[in-house]
Specification:
This protein is mainly α and 319 residues long. The protein has eleven helices and four strands; from the N terminus they run αααββαααααββααα.
């Protein structure tokens, strides 16, 4: 069995046991950086659940070994009934230098270190917001997108077909986009391509490839603002007729940001903070954390060279 499979198995074992354990009275079984009194209390109470102790020790051994063999860092927290049963942290917030060499010292990962949720943001931000609005009767999933964002969503589409998509004229594209519902956007059935390089000036939209000989007709520029993004999405043609087989697309969820902001009348991050994060006491979650006062040492590094993907990408304005 692979190491990753062992970790998943142990985590599944822990969660399965937790389903059948009675509500725990202890705050923590093995907390991170706990006091001596807390440690003695946890050790005493955790003896009632020896299998948990074994599982947690195995998790620590496996993750520690992975860290020793090059894995950058990790956090874990196991909770039941609002009680923290186990938490631990491993590694450094930045484990490698720009040359890919392992760093031996630096800011350690703590329970407060921020990690990039990447595409999980779709579930933990957009989907939560949608579920809330639907439950409040403020959003109908079968509403056409044009009814929320306006006719420009369809009428502004450019006359380009994708080489790997269905070839139709602009009038057909307009009708396709007019038919898209919020439900189809959420289920990746709106017909958008998986992604487009709006940021790359040398990109062929039709072929969906980059090269110095190409000019991007959907280029966002280097000084664009968030308010410029909807027009890029309005101009973006579909790859296939809406309502068919799902085609995973980042573009659809970019679009959902502006659908939600139109419905709520607030920036998405403000709405999420007011409705979810603040009431739940989540003060270490944010879009663009540096803009909210977090330092670089509080954020786990995910790339060696910014967003160049190890210098695979190079374009104006790249970080």
């Amino acid at each position: 069995m692979k190491r990753s499979q062992i970790v998943i198995f142990i985590l599944a074992l822990v969660l399965t046991m937790e389903l059948f354990l009675p509500s725990c009275t202890q705050e923590k079984l093995q907390p991170h950086a706990q006091t001596e009194a807390q440690t003695m209390q946890a050790e005493s109470e955790s003896s009632d659940y020896p299998l948990l102790e074994i599982a947690f020790e195995a998790i620590d051994d496996i993750v520690s070994a992975d860290i020793a063999h090059g894995f950058p860092s990790a956090q874990i927290a196991v909770m039941k009934d609002g009680k923290m049963l186990y938490e631990n942290c491993w590694g450094l917030a930045n484990s490698y230098n720009e040359n890919g060499e392992r760093l031996e010292t630096g800011a350690p990962v703590t329970e407060d270190t921020l990690y990039d949720l990447a595409s999980n943001t779709k579930m933990y931000a957009v989907i939560y917001a949608v579920q809330y609005l639907v439950s409040q009767g403020a959003l109908d999933l079968d509403t056409p997108v044009v009814d929320i964002l306006g006719d420009g969503f369809a009428e502004d589409v450019i006359d380009i077909s994708y080489e790997q998509g269905e070839r139709v004229d602009r009038e057909e594209q307009i009708q396709w986009k007019r038919s898209i519902t919020v439900r189809e956007v959420l289920s990746h059935q709106a017909g958008f391509p998986p992604s487009l390089h709006y940021y790359d000036p040398h990109y062929d939209v039709s072929k969906r490839i980059s090269g110095p000989e190409y000019e991007n007709v959907l280029y966002q520029g280097t000084d664009f603002e968030k308010s410029d993004i909807p027009e890029l999405l309005f101009r973006t043609p579909l790859m296939k007729k809406p309502g068919g087989e799902p085609l995973y697309s980042d573009i659809g969820y970019m679009l959902m940001t502006f659908i939600l902001e139109k419905v709520t009348g607030e920036p998405l991050d403000v709405f999420l903070s007011e409705v979810f994060w603040e009431p739940m006491g989540l003060d270490h979650i944010a879009y663009t954390p540096l803009a909210y006062g977090f330092s670089a040492d509080q954020i786990a590094a995910t790339e060696l060279h910014g967003n160049t993907r190890d210098f695979l990408y190079d374009f104006d304005g790249i970080r």
